Amino acid sequence: MRYAKQKNITRRHFQIGQMDGIDRSSFADEKTLYDAYNLTSDGKPHWKTRPPRGRWHLLNEEQNETNSGVFVLNDPISGACSLEEGLCWTAGTKIYIGGKPLSDVTLQEGDRKQLLPIGKDLFVVPDGVLLHKDTQGVWQKRAAAAHVIINGPMFHMGGCDTNGVKRRLAVVGTSEPAVPYDSYQWVDTSVSPAVLKDKNEAGEWVQLEQDGWFFIFTGLHEKFHVGDYVDITAPGQFYMHNARVFKTEHNAIMVRGDIFADTSEGEGLHIQRRFPVIDHAVVCGNRIWGCRYGENIDGEFVNEIFCSALGDPLTWSRYGTGADDCYCASVGTPGAFTGAAVLYDDIVFFKENSVFCVSGKQPSDFRIAHNEGRGVRAGCERSIARLGSSVVYCGTDGVYRTNGIYTVRLCDGFPPTALENAVGGCIGEKYYLAAHRQNGEKCMFVFTAGRDTYHCEDNAIDVQYFVTQRNSLYMLCIPSTTQIAGISLYWMMICVSDWNAPDKYTNCLLTEGTQESDYGYARETDLRWYALTNELDCGTQATKCIREVAVRFELGESSLFGVELRTDRGECRQLGRFTGMGLRRRILHVSALPCETVQLYFYGHGECTIRDVEIIFENAKGEISRV
Asked: Which residues pair with 466 in a beta bridge?
């Protein structure tokens, strides 16, 4: 006996419990997302919206009198770092520490600054300025480069005895000067190095024991300091190279070094403390490390990696094999340097297709290892950040991490893409990367290294710098709006997160006796987000009919949660919108045409956690029963 055909209406279930970040690769798992905005990996294994942030509004100078305590910035921020006193940044020709400008310090205008804390001091590149805080808490400025030109007979010089006491003034030459007894001494440059001589009562010139040389001119003691290494040249007379200043007095400096005859043309006396042209700089091992591709201060074309003297960022030309000497080495790979970083005791320099790792403790054992690989994209040096035991950065076609030897892509699910003007910062296992796409669109990604996932955040913000301060990561941004309550807004700072206490917003810029409201501080109140899954075939590639979607989610106060279903047939079905605080589970009925794959689109604003998703479906074709 034959029975009629009957459809098998048994429903099948497909559940997504453990959820990952965005993955657009061809082998993406079904528990990953195709696109997302303002989600975080903090809620893993669930999809969760990121916590709200705190922000500071920086107002213009016209509002300063009516808004006491609000920071004033009329120029774009050109550099930023973290100090014990708080955040530090430069804008125009001013430098701000803890929100207060240093009135006695003026920097060059127009250049992007690299602010390098070294001990309790701060070094500014390319200006070559060292800021030192004295015992009274006042920041003092010293320039790494100094050049004094003294014309004609306006300078005086002579020798110092072994106690550093100045002798009589001296004249310089290769032949005996016609001077009377007890008037001038003679610096004899006919021998190499030159020696100091004095005329005795018999009219004979005899050599004196001397420990150094002194030079007198108005303001010399203000330009040069004890410990400086200087080059001194009197064209056509003599020169000194790397002479060390060992004592200063009013309008006078005393130096140790050898004097040699000079045959160049020119006039006057030149005293110079040199500072190199630096492309990118970092601090490691109590030294400033830098690199240069192009013309140096002498007009020569170089391709070099170099460093300052140990513990002395003002000395760059004292080369030798001593433990505290400077160091310089040429590299053979052409192309401009694109960034620099520190990894433990090693220094890593980048070109777009090369990575250089410098290791060693002193100049005699410094070694440079060159590795071909994906380097930092030109213009993305601000994207370099330290993440655990590696350095992460934006490369020419993606985001990479390196230990100085091996370079790998940070996240396999991140599509190769060319990003420009990238800026990065790390806190915990997270790496924040803000950049511009080639079409000019802004984007910001957050990578979680330990979980190999990434999410997308804040596409409307133009980030200039990330700075870590007191367990929080700050963004220095160009705001998306220019007017807030009738006040012109130039810049703002947003607290990204506090690693130890995510719900505590530490205002490290506040000073004693002020309140958060004095600084234009506020928390985000309307956080919009969305998430779009990859194409889901529910474990079967057959044509199917989706009947229900069950979602378990948790909403915060004043939050919204919505669900849409999209099929490969081009249908888009709104399944539901929900408000109200708390944890709940909803079964959403679906009326859609048969399809092979679907995508779920979740959206809303405020705080939300999607705990699990279940799709209930039926096969679209019937089965023949047994006879």
From this structure: 475
